[in-house]
Amino acid sequence: MKLDHIVIAIDSFKGSLSSMEAxxxxxxxxxxxxxxxxxxxxxLADGGEGTVDALVEGxxxxxxxxxxxxxxxxxxxSRYGLLPETHTAVIEMADAAGLPMVPREQRNPLNxxxxxxxxxxxxxxxxxxxxxxxxxGGSATNDAGLGMLTALGWRFYRAxxxxxGIYGRDVVDIAAIDGSGADPRLxxxxxxxxxxxxxxxxxxxxxxxxxxxxxGATPEIxxxxxxxxxxxxxxxxxxxxxxxxxxxxxxxxxxLGFAFHTFLExxxxxxxxxxxxxxxxxxxxxxxxLLLTGEGRMDSQTAMGKGPAGLAMLAKKCHxxxxxxxxxxxxxxxxxxxxxxxIDAYFPILHLPMTAEEAMEETTTRRNLQQTVxxxxxxxx
Length: 381
Hints:
alpha/beta, Rossmann fold, Glycerate kinase, domain 2, 2 domains, six-stranded mixed beta sheet, five-stranded parallel beta sheet, 13 strands, elongated
């Protein structure tokens, strides 16, 4: 097999190696065995946990630490990624309003808010960012973006003219929307939202019914929230003159997808597709002979839009002659489905029986990954 050009983009082995650490280790093996081969390394993420770290590390960015309002209203330590060259902020909404931030006994989406996410966006605006990549998975909220929008300057009023609150419980009170105070810098921005669900805003498949229970909602709360969010959505569509309630992904993160689309004219994009566009890997794939990718755990979920499969399918579109090989910490019995989604072969990196804890030790992961990639390259060359 001709190996003049190898592209490497491996998702993180969570708890062991970051995306760039795994990719750089594999690249060293390739360069040692094939000194004349061009080897390009890219970060890989899918819009979920780890996206900020992967893109910041891989694209030469910086982490900005920020204190914002957490989902329950108390201050929390948060952060976002800053990519100075493109004036882009990379944000995981779960860093401001994620479900793990709420103790299990306090989980109730009536009592959570996305206000902290709006504060993160404001901080990035102050840094000069006008491009935004935002992953909205893992939320503790069901406020249809009410908190975030309030932090960005929108005003929401009750029927008696008083200001509405910022929590999920306050959505039911909203009778009027005023956008005159919205941050004017938002009109200069492009928001790209990593969204991997297709739920509409309301109804049996909407955010309240599908995701409310895992956030602590009882059946009675689900019914009340669904009705309130439907009314809010209809009011927002009328006030802004833009439909969005039935948009696939409108129900993501408790209606945050709807808020981004309708109020901020954002693009809702599958996470892996958005991240692949951000890292600029397409040009490198056009003449690649081998794509080396992977992740910690490979299973049928990998084929459903996660980073390695999304990258493999992109590679096939860019260059039909490229071969894609994946490495993984473990391969589940249903992992073979990835062979129908662009990955020609995959190889678990374990070489000895060991516990999961032993396998995830950084030194062990490095040794196993290096050994496996070495054998793959020796075979292919």
